[in-house]
Amino acid sequence: MDAVKPETVLQFFRELGRRIQRPSRVEVGGSIALILQNVLSRHTDDIDVVNEVPAEIRSEHALLHELATSFGLRLSQFQSQYLPTGWEARRSSFGRFGQLVIHLIDPSDVFVGKLFSARRKDRDDLRALAGRMDKQAVSKRLRTSAGTLLAEPQLAEQAREN
Question: What is the 3-state secondary structure (H, E, C) of 10-59?
Fold first, then answer.
């Protein structure tokens, strides 16, 4: 499958932001955050939103279906507990798209979060990112901000395996 182009994601955000009725804000993580920050290139069909898709967007079933059909992307969610502590202070503003404000999770936080994942696609991302990430920044983030993740034996074991 072809890699998702940043312009496709921008078009998705523009259309969503133009058509929702109330202001909304989302924090985007996962591979889309990396794609939009030119750190990763790959196919995905998910735009990972931290914690939950806002109710004013989540309730727009027909619009979300239309966007998924048009762009091959759908909004999904993941829990912030799988990100290093302090991620909120390190996110960056990506812009306003009509009624929609987007923030992106810092690439080092995404990378550290993926270290604790058992999913094959996250391991593939780790391999693809290994030579592109600032190893000192990732190591520091792991030491200073991943304590709660490392405290979970199953997650710590997964990180060691990855």
Answer: HHHHHHHHHHCCCCEEEEEEHHHHHHHCCCCCCCCCEEEEECCCCHHHHC
What is the chain's pLDDT, residue by residue, as a tens digit (162 residues)?
799 999 999 999 999 999 999 999 999 999 999 999 999 999 999 999 999 999 999 999 999 999 999 999 999 999 999 999 999 999 999 999 999 999 999 999 999 999 999 999 999 999 999 989 999 999 999 999 999 999 999 999 999 999
Q: Does residue 40 lie within any of the structural domains?
A: yes
Tell me if 1 is assigned to some domain.
no
Report the number of distinct structural domains present in the chain: 1
Which residues span the domain enclosing 41?
A: 6-161
